[in-house]
Give the backbone structure.
Amino acid sequence: MALTKVFLLLTCFVFGVKCQASTIDEIPTGPFDQKLLQSVLNPELCETEIRHLVWQNQISLLEFLDAGIRIPRSLLMGNLVDLGNYDQCLGIKATSRSPAIEGKYCTVRIPLSQNLTVPFQFTNGQMKLVNVRDLITQRLKSRGIDTDRLMRNTEEDLVIEGLLNMELKFGICLPKTCTPHEWITYMLTNVSMVGLKYTTEICRLPNDKQWVVFDTLATIVFLLLALITVISTSYDLHCTFTLKLDPKKINPTNRMFSLYTNTKRLVTFGKTANALECLDGIRSVSMMWVIIGHTFSMYSSYANVLDAVDFLTSSDSTWISSGIFAVDTFFTMTGILLVYTTVGKIKPMQLIKGLHFFYLNRIFRLFPLLGALVLLEGSFYHRITDGPQWGGVAINTDNCRRWWWTTLLYVQNYVNPREICIPHSWYLAIDMQLHIISPLILVWVLTNRRKLVWSVLCASIIGITTAATIFNFFKNLPSTNASLIRNDEQDRYMAVFYQNTLTRASPFLIGMAYGYLLNITKGKKVKLPGVLATLLWILAGFMFATVFIMSYNILQLDWDNQLGDNMYNSFARLIWSTALGWLIFACVHGYAGPLNWFLCLPVWKLPARISYAMFLYHYAFMFIYSGMKRAPIFFTFSSTMVDFFALLAWSYIVGFVATVFIDAPFSILLKMMMGGGGGKKRREPRPAKTEAQVENGEPTRTEITNVDEKKE
């Protein structure tokens, strides 16, 4: 008993002595059963259980303490998190009294702004108290980081911004009848006099994930889909292997959901004249670039934060931090394919008359995989596993249950930009919005009057770039969401700039211009003087290098250039997409040498086909993987790369399954529904041509837009 009291008093002493304890236990609402959490609270029973633990069952008391609070390990490396033992805590059931005393897990936050001190230095044999913030500040200065730029004067005190604007986060284990405030008040003598300031983040109990209507809906939908798939596959296998029927005589509607036929089509490749083969490689490499970027940013806590900061601000990480331009790569390819596959196939009036088919085709091609993911995020993903850092998954679940409709209407980047269901689905919203406005330009491009087309395209690019530049100079935003010195502006940057169609439209328009250039040179031998081709490659290389160098500079802790931020936000993506367009043009017309060979390798074809599913589903599994972790991760480049390859393989498998199980059958259904909507039957594409086009990611005549470019 005495040892326990000494330990608890020392713990309180270490965490601070000049603040007032918070009496507000803010348990967030959301996908956890709040009624259950409230129903178990009983102040009188809580006090009785604590007295029983203290005086009669010290073994169980030590079990509660053992599963709970600790001083964070590697504190001087920037780790301010100790999560205790989540599973041990929830498994506690002390049967020495009736009813049994059961464990509850909570996390609390203690602000560093209350000048916390720790016994750290000894002078003449006596312990000296040292301020935690001062220790971290000294540690940062020893690494050459200018901490003065990370501070800001406030009315109360110097509050450390960026890296130093942090809180200690602890997992505590307590009887389920108690609140964290009651537990700490009873267990820590004179806690109000000691004055520890803290807030409760969340509390968890076993089986606290309640079943809701969203779960029922998801269960019904996926069970029906599974049943249809089994029936369709059985019919297909019976006709193919038992009856040995000619494939042409098998009813295509009945085998629409056949896993056998859809898998066979997915892994069968053919040649199509004038196909942009290099896009398969660019699409696949860009998808890997997206996944590796998300891998390096998926963990919510590191045991060695300062090492992670060192890596982030080093030149070694530039190729990773520049992964945001993979998004602009996809926007550029979207614009290219939209024009390349449309010009010469329909007339302007056909586009105008069939505008509803143009929009419906795009909406319903994106919908099946997106709708399935919304259901999974709002239901099964929340139940797949658990952990002390499950908050990220829970937030996504809550957002999808409340804001599913904005995602399916592709307006989430404006209606609820800070609470998006499926965090990365903002890309699909912008993609859809760009397609909605694209006929304003496309209708002129389809005239194929070259002077008029180029005038419209150039005017569009100049106009959107000018508008975005004016917008950026008015907003004065940071140039990246990874800026450590302006970390407090991250949410504003994401909502105002990163997820804004205006500021992200220029690569799409650049892509439309290149798409027209590739279309008018389709099937022709373009002869460029060697000197000109070399100069264009040098220019493109310089443009790529400029983007990489600027991406490195804006992440430095001494970067303080708002003009540079505004210029970067306004022109970096324009520069990137322009250089990328030349790369694609050079590959198509034989001026890329081994680079074209690499991008056209057959190995890229399958990843390119399933890249939309990989894009949608990979990030959700990263949240789950991160939420499962029981302790802060020790960051190293090699361990993160191991995570990347594991997540890449998992994304590939899930993307393949989702494409076969969901995307492929609904793509066939869409073609059947819209096959007669675009014109006379004599103008319909022949079946053989349709299959070849689908195999190579090319559109049919009734699909005005390409179906495989829709990914980040």
Observations:
- The longest helix spans residues 637-674.
